[in-house]
Amino acid sequence: MRKSHFIPAALLVMLTACNSGADNKTAGDSTATDTSMKMSDSSMHHMDSSSAVAPVPAIPAGAKVFFKNLKDGQSVTSPVKVEFGVDGIKLDSAGKLKDGSGHHHLLIDAGDSLALGTVVPKDSTHLHFGNAQTQTEVKLAPGKHKLTLQYADGIHRSYGGQLAKSITVDVKK
User: Fold this and answer.
1) pLDDT tens track of the chain, all 173 residues?
2) Where does the record place the region Disordered (predicted)?
3) 3-6: long-range contacts (C-beta < 8 A, 24 or more apart)?
4) Whose CB among 14, 24, 101, 127 lies 3.0–4.6 Å from 90's, allowing a Cys bridge?
């Protein structure tokens, strides 16, 4: 009789223990899924909490980002091809902090820039290009859209308005 009560109790304890981490796993899984869509660097946004975070690297004099193929106010059709340009600072993959380098992020209808040091969110309006990509295609609904090219360091911290460029495009049907 004792044995028959022990097995269900043990199963209940094991299920409870497994479920206590389910929410964390789900959150991690969605990040891993999103990350694999644009980047293979699984260390994105993950840092060892025991290590001190270095300051955002200095921006080299004269560094700038720009849209290579789009002009402010341009009429386009969807999907929109967007080519990213950068001068005066090295384009590099995400994952490690390296002085004088960074990678692109595309903000869609999400403002002019992110404050210096702010980690760029990862969602449908903040696209990451941590494999040092220099172009993409985005599907946009008809109408006016603000596109902002935001440069960030190796751990996705914004270089602020100094390395951002915004334009508006008019997507025609």
Assistant:
1) 445 454 444 433 333 333 333 333 323 332 222 333 333 333 344 444 445 789 999 999 999 999 999 999 999 999 999 999 999 999 999 999 999 999 999 999 999 999 999 999 999 999 999 999 999 999 999 999 999 999 999 999 999 999 999 999 999 98
2) 23-48
3) none
4) 101
* Degrees, nearest 5: CA angle 143-147-149: 170
Domain ranges within the chain, ordered by starting residue: 2-38, 64-172
CATH superfamily of domain region 64-172: Immunoglobulins (2.60.40.10)
Identify the bridge partners of residue 149 per DSSP, sorted by sequence position.
106, 165
Q: How far apart are CA 102 and CA 51, in angstroms?
A: 21
How many angstroms separate the CA atoms of 172 and 2, rounded?
73
Strand partners for 105: 128, 150
- Residue ranges of alpha helices (H) inside the chain are 2-20, 22-38
